[in-house]
Write a structure and sequence with these properties.
The chain has a seven-stranded mixed β-sheet, with helices on both faces. The radius of gyration is 18 Å and the shape is globular. It has helices at residues 19-27, 70-78, 97-111, 136-145, 161-178, 203-210, 213-216, 220-232, 262-276, and strands spanning 4-6, 12-14, 31-33, 36-40, 52-58, 85-89, 115-120, 182-187, 240-242. Helix content is 36%, strand content 15%. A hairpin with a 5-residue loop joins β1 and β2 (12-14). The protein starts with a strand and ends in a 5-residue tail after the last helix. By secondary structure, the chain is an alpha/beta fold. The chain has a single domain, classed as Rossmann fold (3-Layer(aba) Sandwich). α2 crosses α9 and α3 packs parallel to α5. The protein has nine helices and nine strands.
Length: 281
């Protein structure tokens, strides 16, 4: 996930014009409209023509540039029951809940979705406390090198990760209600959360956890556990569903410490399909 595009809103997405991304998206039959990777019914010329228009948001666990994603499996489950449907995938690696909100706020008036779904949680671990998102230097460095900005300002206000995640969820819900769109955020499964404790992991899963240390630090597993525990102890509100217990510590369900395998994504898609089905009658 090294190729990014920036826009006039000072916001970023994956650069879908990058050849390896194009190849992956083509294999899954995604079509690109701006910063959205779309799947929609074959008889339609454009996703906006679909009767059911679902925006999918999240970090890299949602991003369509990966070989597998839950949106692909959910789309094919939904097409078995609905003739006019589109899923517009706006997932992007490193997106926190705030980044999801920015993207939704930017494009909701154009897309006019009927439903908005977010699979989110773990990326809010890199939200600011005293310094900025740890991925910011990676994203902004090309702009600094081009002398567009003289420096990166990473002196920011402190924030509580749990409160921010819940508040951004509520903000997105309010925004969606303004456009008559149904909104739900799902707390994603993640290794090292209370439902996926280190004590019950196989050596292979522990290797996945260890592999996070060079980028996310030795304390990453504790951050995951504490963040999820704080959410489990909180009142999440009507717009949030906790599905963090959906994928147990089974090796075949995980590609790495933060991403499910294709089998894991199928389970997530099945759960969201069951959740959405009564709403789409």
């Amino acid at each position: 996930m090294d190729y990014w595009s920036f826009d006039t809103y000072s916001f970023y997405d994956h650069d879908y014009s990058h050849p390896p991304y194009i190849e992956t998206l083509s294999r899954r039959e995604y079509k690109i409209y701006g910063p959205w990777a779309c799947l929609f019914s074959e008889h339609l010329d454009h996703p906006s023509q679909a009767k059911i228009r679902i925006i999918a948001l999240g970090g890299s666990t949602t991003s369509a540039i990966l070989e597998s994603t839950w949106t692909y499996h959910l789309y094919h489950r939904l097409t078995s029951q609905h003739e006019s449907i589109a899923i517009l995938n706006g997932g992007c690696g490193t997106y926190s809940s705030y980044a999801e909100y920015l993207k939704l706020n930017r494009d909701i008036s154009t897309i006019r979705p009927t439903h908005v779904i977010s699979l989110s949680g773990v990326n809010d671990l890199i939200l600011p406390i005293q310094i900025s998102n740890g991925f910011v230097s990676l994203l902004i460095e090309p702009l600094l090198q081009g002398d567009l900005f003289s420096r990166l300002n990473n002196v920011i206000f402190q924030g509580d990760r749990r409160e921010r995640w819940i508040e951004e969820s509520n903000h997105m819900s309010i925004l969606c209600s303004h456009y008559d769109a149904y909104f739900r955020r799902f707390l994603q499964p993640c290794l090292a959360s209370p439902h996926n404790p280190l004590e019950s992991m196989s050596p292979k899963l522990m290797e996945m956890i260890s592999a996070t240390a060079p980028i996310l630090g030795e304390g990453y597993p504790k951050l995951v556990h504490d963040f999820y525990q704080s959410l489990h102890s909180s009142t999440l509100g009507e717009c949030i569903e906790d599905i963090s217990d959906l994928l147990p510590n089974d090796e075949f369900l995980w590609a790495d410490a933060r991403h499910p395998s294709d089998d894991g994504y199928k389970i997530i898609a099945d759960a969201l399909f069951a959740y959405l089905t009564p709403l789409l009658q």
